[in-house]
Amino acid sequence: MSAEESGHPGVPMEYATWRKNRWEEITGPGGKAGTVQLAMVSHPESGVPGLPGRWEVSASGVLTLTTTVADGVSIDGRPVTGAVGVESGGQVELADGRVCFVQGRGGTFGVVVWDPSAPVLARLRDIASIPTIRTGSSTPSIGQCQAVPSK
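Above: the chain sequence. Below: its structure as tokens.
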């Protein structure tokens, strides 16, 4: 496809698509620019500072979140109260709009807290990048690797 088809004269379509996807990865829901906290939870320690409820991992390796109605916590859009298991890959939505992404196994879980009003996310306007296009060929040789530039 031509550069003009990308909507950005002089920019190849593949690069424009990559930039659009990269922008979404960084600024979209759950994007890196909105990350405001990283935490680990493992047995026997419990709790995640700054988050409502009690986060703890049982001796059998299950992550449990215990909340009250006042905490305003939901999992997969359903309000939860009391003790509930949180599976790896789960999302915990907080009353203030933050979302906790949970990953883990073997009794250790990572919690990434994403905030749609994170200062970095609010200020981000562009991601600087320079496309790198290299052409050439390589010739295999015994004991070494050698690149041969294109002409």
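Residues 113 and 140 are 47 Å apart (CA to CA).
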